[in-house]
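Risk register update: the risk of archive-format incompatibility is retired. Evidence:
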Amino acid sequence: MKEENLFPDWFKNILIGIGVYSLLYIVLNYFPKHVPIIALSYPIALYFIMSFESELPENWKANRARYFRSISLTVIGFFTLVQLLKYDYYIKHAGRLIIGPNVIFLTDNYILRIAIYIFTLLFFIIVGSYVTFKTAHRIESLDGIGAFEAGKKIWKDITLPVPKGQNLGPFGTPEYIEGQKKEALRLFDIAIEKGYDNAEVFRLRGSCLNDLGFYFDAIEDYNKAIEKKPKTGIASNYHMRGLIKDKVFDYKGGLADIDEAIRLSKLDNHDNEFWNEYAKKTFGYDSATQFYELQRDMFKVSLDVEERYPTDRTSELLKIKRR
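Archived output:
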């Protein structure tokens, strides 16, 4: 997939122009008196850092929007604190404009100086925060995390249970739902290709692949999700992989995964608390463990039948779709 530029060339040229102008202005006007201008210039430096991101750790690119927000808001907070702690200094210079060797007095009125100080401070906070979130959103739209979040939203929308009596109209048709699953799959592919490859994206893509009939590919994604040792959905990952293995007639492998899901679901942790509550609300079981145990019984029946009456599944396996 062709790599997209973070900013178009015209925007890059504007950034360079603003950067040069800001630097000259700060040098000519003695930077201690113009902290807000310094703070608002930092996105330019961050842009050039991202220009050399190929030499940075892989994790940077996948999460640079998050880093951008953290760095930006930290800088804004720091300079806001400086201006609050030295408010008397900034009020003193609020009525002055220094242009080279010349000092222009705009006002000597103390009340007006306070008003200018407050306006400048609020302007810096509001504009700085706005630029931060807008730029971060722009970064996310081109990076893996943005694709992941978009795909996750689509997946959540189409998998939420529909309240009884509610008619979704054309948005509830099998054709529409399948189209949405394919779109979610496309977005998860982009996310992984761009470096956002944590356990959750593999788990969700595996679920997409499973629903679309790509069972072998789904198992591979759940393998990766489990290998990454996530902190959430631990037992659920084994449970889902077991169900998918059942679809490719790997009854022994599926039973082993269900047994592991049962073992993990009995651990005392916050993740199991969530899945126990989910099992109660969604399926009406006392716990996730009970739900898994009932499915284990069905797996045992399938395995027993297969062992008693072995069947050649070669032709059926060949019919299973692969990407």
